[in-house]
Each structure stands twice: as C-alpha cells, then as structure tokens.
Amino acid sequence: MKLITFQAYRTLGLPDVRYIKPSLMFKEIDAIREADVVLFPETWQVPALVYGLKKHIFPSIETLQLGFSKVDMTRALWTVAPENVPYTEIMANTAANIDYVLNAFPYPFVAKEARNARGNGVFLIEREADFRRYAEQSEVLYVQEYLENDGKELRVCVVGDQVFTAYWKVCPEGSFLHNVAQGGDICFDFVPREACELVLRVARELNINHAGFDVMISGDRFYILEFNALFGNQGIQARGLSVETAIYQYLIQQFVPTFPTSPTTPGKIIS
User: Fold this and answer.
1) Which neighbouring-strand residues pair with 216?
2) Which residues contact 8 (CB under 8 A, 6 or more apart)?
C-alpha cells in the first residue's frame, strides 16, 4: 500500500509512507496520483485531493471539514446529538446581537473563537466588559452556557471506527480550562463507558475517523463540547499505546482488505 503523508510527525513508523511538504503538492502531483491513500492533508488541500484527484484521504473529509471550525462542528452535532450539546448561540457580530447575548446569558458564560484549539480562544465571561473585549476580536459570536462540573472533562480519542483510548483532563487549580496544553493533568481512572459509547455513535454518524472529543459531565448528562481532528498525543503516550499502529490497521481494513494485519491489537472502548 502506497501512502503519502503531509504531516510526518503523525505518521512516524508507518510502512511505505512518503512525506511531501504541503506547499509542494502540485509539484509532486504524479506521486500523489499513484498513492493509495493520502494522509493528514491540510484543509486547503482537501478539495483538490478528493474532488480533483479522487484520492482516498485520512482523516476523512468530514473529519477535516467539520474539525476546521467550531461553527460547522456545532451545527453538525446539533443534527445527531442535540441533547448532548451545551446551549449555544452562533451569531453575526453585530451591535444588536451583542446586546442580545448580554441580556440572554447569565454570568458566567463561555465565548469561543470559531477556529482555535488546545484551550486557546476560550474565554470565561464574568462581566459585560469581558464579552465586549471578546467581541472586538471575533468575527462571529460563538457563545455557550457555562456548565457546572467537578473540575474535569473527558478526552475520548476515536481512531478509525473505534474508541482508541479515553482519559480525564483535570483542571489545574485556579483555572476553568482542562486542556493538557494549559496545564491540565491526565487521569485514566473510572472513565464512564456511556460517554465512550456516545462519542462512538456520534463519530460513526458523522463519519469522523480521527478525533479527540471533549466531553463534560454536568448534572446527569454528558455534553460534547467539541472535537479536535489533530488531537494531542500526551494521554496516548502516557498509556504506552501506538496511534500509528491503529491508523495503519484501519487503513488496511478500509482500503486493502486482503493485506495481512499487524498482530498488535489496537485500543478498545475503555470500561
């Protein structure tokens, strides 16, 4: 199986893979035509690869396109699991809409930039001045209710058609962000199977095959906050797992059914 990757770091250890710098895509178009699967393209490359060259890509086109913007992602989640999405308003940044949000949302609430990750671009709004500062730098108003929680959220990693691993991200003292990149800790204890089953159902309905889903428990309900197509590997490495092995087995399963698989068993839903 011939593989082309546009992200060398995420495909280390995969056999028969060639790295091409994204900016050189059209200079290397003949090599790309010969590839069986193209791995980790950037968002701008996807239309040419899928519609022009008719290439199989990984992650899926749905993963890359929905993962690119919280706006599109949330609207897709509304279609398959509306009861598991926090109350969210997505609005044009106008004076009238700013006033609407300030009147409709009780403090505190959360405002986010449409395109960001690793805990960046997420703001806890505790007063009017906080929201007006956010609005000054945001083209779109993306506003969510604040969910009461116990200081942690789940990261559920989907690779291929399974939950590869899951773990808690524990909020550092004095912060409302749980991201490991923002100082959060990792814990593998007592991960609820129901949360993994919810994520797996949503991933399958949306054809998401490589993503880290953030899930919060508030009250008696699981809420999917967002998912990141290019999720961090800290929790995976801490558990001694190989995401590359799981990716390769999935590619074989999807595109080369008769090819012998590695004896390594990929992760399963955490019980």
Assistant:
1) 223
2) 19
Contact by Cβ (8 Å): 225, 112: no
The DSSP output letter for 141 is E
What's the mean pLDDT when you consider all of the chain? 89
Edge-to-edge order in the sheet of strand 210-218:
185-187, 162-170, 152-159, 210-218, 221-228
168 alpha-carbon distance from chain centroid: 16
User: pLDDT tens for residues 92-139?
Assistant: 999 999 999 999 999 999 999 988 766 578 999 999 999 999 999 999
| Residue 56 contacts residue 71 (beta carbons within 8 Å) | no
In the chain the beta strands, taken as DSSP E runs, fall at 3-5, 17-19, 37-39, 56-58, 88-92, 109-112, 122-125, 140-145, 152-159, 162-170, 185-187, 210-218, 221-228
Q: Which residue has the higher pLDDT, 97 or 190?
A: 97
Residue 39: pLDDT band with limits 50, 70, 90:
very high
Residue with tokens 């505190």: 108
pTM for this model (two decimals): 0.87
